[in-house]
């Protein structure tokens, strides 16, 4: 490193020593402006320090400025500062004097110096303070020595100003949305009553005590009743058509059965006649044309019986399908009602949650309006209280405070506005 030599050209060594000592003391005093607060202050994370290092070399009678080590540094999240050559140096919880002494000692040990370098450490920027609660601009703010709660509050813009107009608008908006939700909920309640009436096959919608409280219950019941009657009519028409089809197919099957019996008897008679004709033909008493005609009659009757069997089978298949359609229609009706009831219950639950949210928003708007009025009308700040959250032994501790309480770097100042009895009425 380059050494800056401060020495008298032709004077005795003792005189040079005295002059150089005075020069070193003056050099460090210029670099390290002292604050009474900084002397007792313990560094913490986010603090920024300015380091200056100089060494008095007795043998040469000169001062060496360690500019490579000097500079501005921040206390990291691990509580250390990182210096050239020295590396990570613990700083959190120590005073600037302790850090300066540690730097000089480390430098002497690292470079094997006969004289310990003199280090000057001053705080260039304190870690911030935080404002929370009923302040106009909550957040992080730079710290200045001598800061009090009142000064910190002024930096944050003072107490939160009353915004009763905005709160009133929020209340009206929440109230309007709540009215829409109430209307939807009432419709869902009547819909649920209609679905239950359909599931239980009741002719009318049962009006319970809860439904009687609905202002427009008559119109809602009339609307749902009309829908219920329309759905029941459609179901009835569908089932009636299937019943008529089943009756027709049953009658057709019965007719084919009777026709089958008739043709079976005819076939038996013709077959008996054919047997006689065959016997006569074998004896030469019947013509072959007669025998051929009888065989044709038998064939025609057998073919007719086959057609009847086919038609009967087709009619029975159609009857089974009609019965299945009837069952499917009834099951689909029941499933639709069950699904509709489930959806209605889910929507009712959703409306209840949204209504609770809107009621909470309305209450919050009223409370904020009352708090703002209380903060505006409070006498001598009697409705405002302060507290400081400060880390002690690594744990946050809340301390009661007043406007004149001294704030330390890293503190969180909480401002609370309490409602007066008049504002709560």
TL;DR of this structure?
58% of the residues lie in helices and 15% in strands.
Would you write up a description of this structure?
- Residues 129-162 form the Soluble ligand binding domain.
- GO terms for molecular function: polysaccharide transmembrane transporter activity.
- This is Sugar ABC transporter substrate-binding protein.
- It comes from Allorhizobium terrae.
- InterPro entries: HH_AprE-like (IPR058781), Poly_export (IPR049712), Poly_export_N (IPR003715), Soluble_ligand-bd (IPR019554).
- This protein is of the alpha+beta class and 425 residues long.
- The protein folds into three domains: 42-125, 2-Layer Sandwich (wza like fold), CATH 3.30.1950.10; 130-159 and 381-417, no CATH class; 165-380, no CATH class.
- Helix content is 58%, strand content 15%.
- It has helices at residues 13-31, 36-40, 96-111, 149-155, 164-199, 209-212, 217-282, 288-377, 421-424; strands at residues 48-57, 62-65, 71-74, 80-83, 87-90, 118-125, 129-133, 139-141, 384-392, 395-401, 412-417.
- The strands form three sheets. A five-stranded mixed β-sheet has the order 8-7-11-9-10. Strands 1, 2, 3 and 6 form a four-stranded antiparallel β-sheet that branches.
- Strand 9 and strand 10 (395-401) form a beta hairpin.
- Helix 5 (164-199) runs antiparallel to helix 8 (288-377).
- The longest helix has 90 residues, at 288-377.
- It starts with 12 loop residues before the first helix and ends with a helix.
């Amino acid at each position: 490193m380059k050494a800056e030599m401060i020495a008298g050209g032709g004077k005795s060594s003792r005189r040079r020593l005295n002059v150089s000592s005075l020069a070193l003391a003056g050099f460090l005093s210029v670099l390290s402006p002292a604050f009474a607060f900084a002397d007792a202050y313990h560094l913490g994370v986010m603090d920024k320090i300015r380091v200056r290092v100089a060494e008095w070399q007795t043998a040469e009678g000169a001062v060496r400025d360690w500019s490579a080590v000097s500079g501005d540094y921040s206390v990291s999240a691990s509580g250390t500062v990182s210096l050239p050559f020295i590396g990570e140096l613990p700083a959190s919880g120590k005073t600037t004097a302790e850090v300066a002494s540690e730097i000089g000692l480390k430098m002497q040990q690292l470079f094997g110096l006969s004289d310990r370098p003199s280090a000057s450490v001053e705080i260039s920027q304190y870690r911030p303070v935080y404002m929370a609660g009923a302040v106009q601009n909550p957040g992080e703010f730079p710290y200045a020595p001598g800061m009090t709660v009142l000064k910190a509050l002024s930096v944050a813009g003072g107490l939160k100003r009353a915004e009763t107009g905005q709160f009133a608008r929020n209340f009206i908006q929440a109230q309007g949305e709540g009215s829409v939700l109430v209307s939807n909920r009432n419709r869902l309640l009547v819909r649920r009553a209609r679905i239950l009436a359909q599931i239980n096959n009741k002719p009318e919608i049962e009006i319970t005590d809860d439904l009687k409280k609905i202002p427009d219950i008559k119109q809602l019941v009339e609307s749902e009743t009309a829908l219920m009657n329309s759905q029941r009519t459609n179901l009835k028409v569908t089932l009636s058509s299937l019943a008529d089809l089943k009756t027709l197919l049953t009658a057709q099957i019965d007719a084919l059965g009777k026709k089958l019996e008739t043709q079976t008897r005819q076939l038996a008679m013709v077959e008996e006649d054919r047997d006689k004709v065959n016997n006569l033909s074998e004896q030469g008493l019947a013509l072959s044309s007669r025998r051929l005609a009888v065989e044709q009659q038998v064939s025609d009757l057998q073919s007719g019986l086959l057609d009847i069997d086919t038609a009967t089978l087709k009619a029975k298949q159609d009857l089974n399908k009609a019965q299945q359609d009837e069952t499917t229609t009834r099951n689909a009706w029941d499933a639709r009602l069950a699904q509709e009831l489930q959806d209605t219950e889910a929507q009712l639950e959703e409306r209840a949650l949204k209504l609770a949210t809107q009621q909470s928003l309305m209450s919050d708007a009223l409370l904020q309006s009352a708090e703002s009025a209380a903060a505006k009308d409070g006498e001598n700040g009697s409705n405002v209280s302060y507290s400081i959250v400060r880390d002690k032994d690594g744990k946050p501790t809340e301390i009661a405070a007043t406007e004149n309480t001294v704030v330390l770097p890293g503190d969180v100042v909480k401002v609370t506005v309490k409602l007066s009895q008049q504002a709560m009425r």
